[in-house]
Specification:
Elements (H helix, E strand, L loop, with lengths): L4 H8 L2 H16 L16 E4 L1 H7 L1 H38 L5 H55 L3 E4 L16 H17 L14
Parallel strand pairs: 1-2
Helix pairs in contact: 1-5, 3-6, 4-5
C-alpha cells in the first residue's frame, strides 16, 4: 500500500500551477489589461494545505480497507501455497516411484505434471492481477473521496487553492496557520462514519413554500 501516498500527489499536483496562474492573471487585470475570462480574478486568493501523510495515516476509510486487503492477500497466498504444495507432493511421489514405472507411464505422468505446473503459474498470475486490480480500485475510490470532500471543504471555507505539503511537494515553506489537515481528516472520518451507519443525507423539503 505504500504507493497510495501518490494519490494525493495526483489530487493536488496542479495546485501550485493554479496559484501562479491566479497571481499573474490578477496582475494583468489590475494593470488594465483585457480580461478574457469574462470575470475578475479574486485579489485575495485564500490558500490552505494538508499533510498527505497525516490524511492517509488517520483516514478511517483507508485503514479499514487496508485491513481487508491484507486479510484477502493472506487468504490468496495460503490458497496458492496449498496448490503448490499439492503439486510438489505429486512430483515427490513420481520421483519416488519412477524406477518402477513403464516408459508410457513416465511419459503420461510427466505430461500431466507439466500441465499442472503451467496451470499453477497461470493461477499465480491471475491472483497477482486480481490484487493489482483491487489496489487500483481502492486508489481510485480514495482519490474520488478526497477530491469530492476537498471541493466541498474549499467552497465552505472560501478557499481557492489547497496544497499538499510534504518533503516531495514543490512548496518549500508554509505557515502552520494554513494547515487544515486535522479539519479535513475530521470531516472525512465523519462522512465515513455516517456512511457506515447508513445515515441518509439531509434533503431539502421540496414541499416548502418558495419565497
Amino acid at each position: 500500500m505504500k504507493n497510495l501516498s501518490l494519490i494525493l500527489n495526483a489530487v493536488l499536483l496542479v495546485a501550485v500551477g493554479v496559484l501562479f496562474y491566479l497571481h499573474f492573471a490578477g496582475n494583468k487585470t489590475s494593470s488594465g489589461g483585457p480580461s478574457t475570462s469574462g470575470s475578475s480574478v479574486p485579489s485575495d486568493v485564500k490558500i490552505a494545505y494538508i499533510s498527505s501523510d497525516s490524511v492517509l495515516k488517520h483516514y478511517e476509510f483507508l485503514k479499514a480497507n487496508q485491513v481487508q486487503m491484507e486479510a484477502k492477500a493472506r487468504k490468496i497466498e495460503q490458497e496458492y501455497r496449498n496448490r503448490a504444495q499439492g503439486l510438489q507432493n505429486e512430483i515427490t511421489a513420481y520421483q519416488r516411484n519412477v524406477t518402477s514405472m513403464t516408459l508410457g507411464q513416465v511419459k503420461a505422468v510427466e505430461e500431466d505434471l507439466g500441465k499442472k505446473q503451467q496451470n499453477l503459474q497461470m493461477y499465480q498470475q491471475s491472483l497477482s492481477q486480481q490484487m493489482m486490480e483491487e489496489e487500483s480500485k481502492l486508489q481510485k475510490e480514495l482519490y474520488d473521496r478526497i477530491t469530492a470532500y476537498l471541493k466541498k471543504y474549499a467552497a465552505d471555507k472560501n478557499l481557492q487553492v489547497v496544497l499538499k505539503f510534504d518533503p516531495t511537494s514543490d512548496v518549500l515553506y508554509v505557515g502552520d496557520a494554513l494547515d487544515v489537515s486535522n479539519d479535513v481528516i475530521k470531516g472525512l472520518n465523519e462522512e465515513y462514519k455516517q456512511e457506515k451507519a447508513g445515515a441518509a443525507p439531509v434533503k431539502k423539503d421540496s414541499t416548502a413554500t418558495k419565497k
